[in-house]
Amino acid sequence: MAAAAALAESMLAGPTGKAHGEAAKAAEAGGQLDVARPAPQASASELAAESPAPVVELTEPRAGRGRGKRANRGAAVSLAGEPVLEPVMDRGATTADASEAKNEANSEAVPAAARELALTDAAPADAAPLTLGEQLANMRVVVFDVETTGTDRRNDQVIELGVQTGLDQLANGRTWRFRPDVPIHPGAQAVHGISMAELEGCPAFRDCLDEVAAVFERAEVIIGYNIAFDIDMLAAEYERAGRKPIDFSGKTIIDAFRLWQQCEPRSLQHAHQRFVGDRFTAAHSASADVAATGRVLTGMLRAFGLEQQDWVAIAGLCDPQRATWIGPTRHLRWESGVVTLGFGKHAGAALHKVAHGPDRSFLRWVLDRDFPPHVVEICRAALELASRVAQAEDVAEPISAWVRERFGAPSAASAAPAALSAAS
């Protein structure tokens, strides 16, 4: 290491500074998704509103154009899906004939169940709106989640997709597993526990594009947890295969994570109420906020069982990635001993590959922008070191050695957050 650092120093000839993946069996299936759309149905109020006429004809229902609307004029469908006899005026009938035939039509031709429904089930004008459960029964609700090789949409891939139709515990669901073309990032594998060995023999995502798209195309409500990430990673898979991504623009999107944030505010006063037991007065004066923050943190450490942990471990739990940062911001980080970009279009890429690659101008752009000083310093050093070698791999260790010497080695406490999280 000392020799590499010395080599980097001599190459720089002075103190100039600068210098991402979530696959073993075939897809698991929990039950096939029921994606058939129910037939259009006439409501009770529509049946009640029919004007009975003397002559009755049985008209067969035709496919409707919209849910909840009449399929066509002269065709009605009962709530059970059976055709309903609908009276139609005979062109030669007189008014008297019509009056006499009206009773006959009502008593003989119209089924008793339909007459009873029309008389007793007509919805009042001021009927209460449908409950959420009633709405869900009439809509196609899809809950989904993905597991990936990592968090970089440009390079990481979906290795598992879980889908459920509806919110009920007995709702149909299915799970797909996919074999990726890139390795699974260690941080991602620590979260979902899926290894590359488990994904051997699974199809690639590009082999299941149509099958997956069909599920979402027929859905009306899409539900997830922090769903923006899942939608983004799905879109990346379709773009990578040269296909148009699934169109979610006409869907109703429900994010349970965002809903939680909105319905349970995270203000200091709310935190004080939960972890201390009351709402403090004099909120938003600096001295009161400082004292309240101290009380809140003390209550949090007690509630989460963290009172025996040191400050470095607690800081790592606040942001599990912080232990990998180079310097005080997330712009650059350590990945398996390699300096890696954490921002911009090259986020997740090794710094030495960008510095020695065709888009090294990105790093020159960084030098002219208002980035933190340590980011500018490391990027400048990487460009200078890369300009003196023939191959990108030849500069990987010199850059890493220089950064270790200037900003320190990766923190050994980087494993602490995972241990804390598992314990709590």
Q: Mind explaining what this structure looks like?
A:
The protein is α/β, with parallel strands linked by helices and 424 residues long. The chain has 4 domains: 44-120, no CATH class; 140-261, 2-Layer Sandwich (Nucleotidyltransferase, domain 5), CATH 3.30.420.10; 271-318, no CATH class; 320-416, no CATH class. It is built from 17 helices and 9 strands. The chain has helices at 2-12, 44-49, 95-109, 112-120, 132-137, 186-192, 209-217, 227-240, 256-263, 268-275, 286-303, 311-318, 351-355, 361-367, 373-386, 393-407, 416-423, and strands at residues 56-57, 86-87, 141-148, 158-165, 173-177, 221-224, 252-255, 332-335, 338-341. A 5-stranded mixed sheet has the order 5-4-3-6-7. Strands 1-2 form a two-stranded antiparallel ribbon. A two-stranded antiparallel ribbon has the order 8-9. Helix 12 packs across helix 17 and helix 14 (361-367) runs antiparallel to helix 15 (373-386). The radius of gyration is 33 Å and the shape is globular.
